[in-house]
Amino acid sequence: MKNSFVYYLTIFIPLIILYNLLQSDSIDATWFVISIFAYAFIYRMITDYYRLLSRNAIEKKDFWKLLIPGARFKYFKSLYSF
Fold it and tell me: Are 35 and 18 in contact (CB under 8 A)?
């Protein structure tokens, strides 16, 4: 349960920070969109990889599988279950 809580914090805190930066006019809309894409395609891939490793649902050599669009749906239950 503790591991799940940490995982959810690591995936939601960057979104909250990005939203607050956009609302405070610290970044413009272009950088916000670039940051969202980086979050979705780089950050989430890495966090999901480490989550799957900790749950023994994937091996270290299978990192490339997460690069395939839609491949994370195969591991949906492993990623989001408590």
Answer: yes
List pLDDT tens digits, range 33-70: 999 999 999 999 999 999 999 999 999 998 888 888 88
* Cβ proximity of 26 and 40 under 8 Å: no
Cα(18)–Cα(49) distance, integer angstroms: 22
Q: Could you give the 3-state DSSP secondary structure of residue 61?
A: helix
Burial of 28 (0-12, 13-18, 19+ CB in 10 A): exposed
Please state the length of the chain.
Answer: 82
Q: Are 22 and 29 in contact (CB under 8 A)?
A: yes
Beta strands in 10-78 (DSSP E): none
Q: What is the DSSP letter of 77?
A: H
pTM listed for this prediction: 0.83
